[in-house]
Amino acid sequence: MKKLIAGIALFGTFALASAQTITFDKTTFDYGNIKPSSDGTRFFTVTNTGDKPLIISNVKPSCGCTTPEFSQDPIMPGKSAKIKVGYNTALTGGFNKMIEVFSNDPANSRSVIYIKGNVDANAPEPKVLTPAEQKEVAKAEKKAAKVAKKAAAK
């Protein structure tokens, strides 16, 4: 009987040690000051730093002014996916919105990400990035995702 209990405990410990793990490149996206009716779309990168497939089952915004889009396709270990978040920039003033992300991560089945910013008619015009600057931004985002993955692995 003791061997049976020890075997179940050992198997339970192993099952918890090997699981899917959700990691975000950032948990808050700051829009800064933006003009009304400007592009309100931003992306969060989700990485599975575990060793089993990660499934995002639902993404719920805190209000109707925020619209998330996501795929329910499994995110394989070491792979990433994007959560697209749109904010209605026709609404002027400051905003700080919460978005709940539900997944099959046993330790973080409910994660929270945020968007914040200020929609102001007097905001400066957004700078148009050159192709070289766009490459640099993409490179920086990729590097940030790698750093987040390494930090989650510790």
Describe the model:
By secondary structure, the chain is an alpha+beta fold. It has two helices and eight strands, in the order αββββββββα. It has helices at residues 2-17, 131-153; strands at 22-24, 28-34, 41-48, 56-61, 66-69, 80-87, 93-103, 110-119. It has a four-stranded antiparallel beta sheet. Strands 2-8-7-4 form a four-stranded mixed beta sheet, with no helix packed on it. 16% of the residues are buried.
Describe the secondary structure blueprint for this structure:
Blueprint: H1 2-17, E1 22-24, E2 28-34, E3 41-48, E4 56-61, E5 66-69, E6 80-87, E7 93-103, E8 110-119, H2 131-153
Parallel strand pairs: 2-8
Antiparallel strand pairs: 1-3, 3-6, 4-7, 5-6, 7-8
Describe the structure concisely for a colleague.
By secondary structure, the protein is of the alpha+beta class. The protein is built from two helices and eight strands, in the order αββββββββα.
Query: Which strand order spans the largest sheet, edge to edge or round the barrel?
Result: 1-3-6-5
Mean pLDDT: 84
pLDDT below 50 for ≥5 consecutive residues: which ranges?
6-16
Percentage of residues in DSSP E strands: 35-45%
Give a quick account of the main beta sheet: strands, pairing sense, barrel closure.
4 strands, antiparallel
Question: Kindly, what is the distance between the CA atoms of the first and last residues, rounded to a whole number of angstroms?
Answer: 37 Å
